[in-house]
Amino acid sequence: MAGQAQDNLAFYDESFDVYNERRLTLMAELDKAISHDGLDLHFQPQLDLKRNRIIGVETLVRWKHPEYGFIPPDEFVTLAERTGIITPLTRWVIRNTLKAHSELTAGGFPLQFSINISAVNLKEPDFAQQVAFMLEEFGVRPQDIMLELTETAMMDNPIRASEELFRLKKIGVLLSIDDFGTGYSSLSYIKKLPIDEIKIDKSLVFDLTSSTDDQVIVKTTLEMAQNLGYRVVAEGVENQEMLDILIDLDCDLIQGYFLARPMPLPALLDWLSERGL
Ligand code: C2E
Ligand code: CA
Ligand code: CA
Ligand code: CA
Question: Ranges for the EAL domain (predicted)?
């Protein structure tokens, strides 16, 4: 899997020229979209299986380009990481997530918000400090914010990444390892970091219903992670069968289309009201 991810990057570099024009247009316009609030945030609920309660949401950024239409976040986040635009992009996402958090809290739904952070952000000299300032500005408690990072991305500069994670931990925000089970996930590296949560990648969750081997992998991952004291989330739960297996395996939280798709804030408020939390 690690090799595959690297191959993808290599392929991406080679084809960079081919898409140069689209790439340049997109980056120039992403910059504008950030400064003129041309992006949107969608929120996907997370269900705590043990308490049968919605306890959090993951923030997912959306960009509808006037000419190209909907651009998948995977595409423009990758571009933004390569051009440095990820710094203002992440800042925009955090600020607007904190705003949404305040609105939901005012609406009677004090949820935890998970935000995707790029490993590139961890190399910014003052990232943790910036996060602290924003929390203060919006009056949000640090423990209401979970930052999601992929381990593969941190491997680029594990020492620098680890230092910044400890700074973030000191501020009091929670930290999650995203896409666990892809790449060279290793609990022995994660164990050295101040991590609160492990998110099992949807590719593993998809395989739950078809292969007993994959069930063993998820079961073992869950047991190890929980024994080490991490909360475990399964993402990409698309049907009842997957949910039943995850309940059986004693998973802590689930997220996926079966529960709810990512949605804008007003829809989320309606959804939460109908459900009664
Ligand atoms: P991710 O962090 O792993 O996010 C989960 C992706 O799975 C999201 O795709 C979500 O819409 C999708 N998903 C949720 N439930 C299901 C399900 O049941 N089945 C299937 N097939 N998919 C499901 P999305 O929104 O297209 O985001 C793709 C990736 O883009 C994210 O993967 C994340 O790596 C990145 N991304 C999205 N928003 C942000 C952001 O604000 N900042 C950063 N840095 N990256 C972001
Ligand atoms: Ca994520
Ligand atoms: Ca993920
Ligand atoms: Ca991902």
Answer: 23-276
75 lines ligand 1 (CB under 6 A): no
Nearest CA to ligand 1 atom 27: 73
Check: pTM over 0.80? Answer yes or no: yes
Q: 221 vs 67, 167, 205, 228, CA distance in Å?
A: 44, 27, 12, 11
- Distance separating alpha carbons of residues 42 and 35, to the nearest angstrom: 18
Please name the residues in contact with 165: beta carbons below 8 A apart, sequence gap of 6 or more.
122, 149, 175, 193, 194, 195
Q: What is the pLDDT of residues 107-141, one digit of tens each?
A: 999 999 999 999 999 999 899 999 999 999 999 99
Distance 108 CA to ligand 4 centre (A): 30
Q: Is the ipTM of this complex over 0.95?
A: yes
Q: How many CA atoms within 13 Å lie on the side-chain side of 143?
A: 1
| CA of 46, nearest ligand number | 1
